[in-house]
Design goal:
- This protein is an alpha+beta fold.
- It contains three helices and four strands.
- Helix 1 packs antiparallel against helix 2.
- The model has no long low-confidence stretch (mean pLDDT about 90).
């Protein structure tokens, strides 16, 4: 399991290089890889900073795309706050960004934390 967001991003790049099988051997577009790495960074950083620590991490290539699972030790839901674009604020943009970039996101609450699963389309 990665210790931080940088190590998690490295794991995602490794999975994409080793296991992605696009049409005619294509690789995912750079923008898609960038989105996958951004979602990875946000979920892992939030688990470490706000979720009581990273307790699980996995990646898998499916027919639908990259399936990313990040687990943490908090039973609290991710924070979704409405932002006023006219007011400069720090933080609070990660979860809305994850929801926008991922094709599908789900949160499963467990007695000792939660799993967040994000599907990132690779095409």
């Amino acid at each position: 399991m990665p210790r931080n967001a940088a190590a998690a991003r490295d794991a995602v790049v490794r999975v994409l290089r080793e296991r992605f099988r696009g049409r005619r051997g294509e690789e995912p577009a750079e923008i898609v890889v960038g989105d996958a790495l951004l979602v990875t960074s946000e979920l892992v950083t939030n688990a470490v900073r706000h979720g009581g620590g990273l307790t699980g991490f996995s990646t898998e290539i499916t027919d639908e795309g990259l399936l990313l699972t990040v687990s943490d030790a908090s039973t609290l839901p991710p924070v979704t706050a409405e932002r006023d674009p006219a007011v400069a604020s720090v933080g609070g943009y990660g979860w809305p960004l994850v929801r926008r970039l991922a094709k599908r996101v789900s949160v499963t609450y467990l007695p000792d934390g939660k799993d967040i699963v994000a599907l990132i389309a690779l095409a």
